[in-house]
Write the structure tokens for this entry.
Amino acid sequence: MNQAIVAALIAGICGLFPSGWGMAAEYKDPGVLLDKLKESKLSLADGIKQSEQAQGFATSAKFEMKGDTLMLSVYTAKQGRDKDSEHNVLMELIGDATAAAWGPKTEVFEDKPHIARSAMHLTLMQLSKLSLGEVVKKAEAAQKGTVYSAIPAVRKGRPVVEVLVAAPDNKSVHLTIDLLKRRVSR
């Protein structure tokens, strides 16, 4: 299947989510999250690495607030990058990022929105030779601060990862990393 067709299919899947599952909807009060990031015992890259060692290929990752607790969430595909979503186990590892050791709980997705979203993330990452960890490293090289979200998306018909970085001035910086051209843009 060519990349234009895949991108069109993925764009259709994105239509399942009323808000487009966009970055703005994800962080209603980013100030609280940005303040809490300082309490994390691990980086997004550390969480991705740990998740991949335990539960397969990482397809997206983010820090988020659950009440007053800073959580790290990583979506994975248990059977890896080479198996399509229909023949994979799509799951989330989520746990308290401020604990001495990150001990995430694992949830295998069974509901339609999570399955569709995680299938889209896997498909987009399959279009690239970059891993999610490599995407985070590119973002860290392009912008000083703490990377706190790396979510695959389709922008202008292209597979990208939308990355959020907490800059040293405690403001959020949005970067887009093109998964095919491997370029970072603001």
Observations:
- Residues 3-185 form one domain.
- The beta strands are 57-66, 69-77, 90-96, 105-108, 146-155, 158-166, 172-178, 184-185.
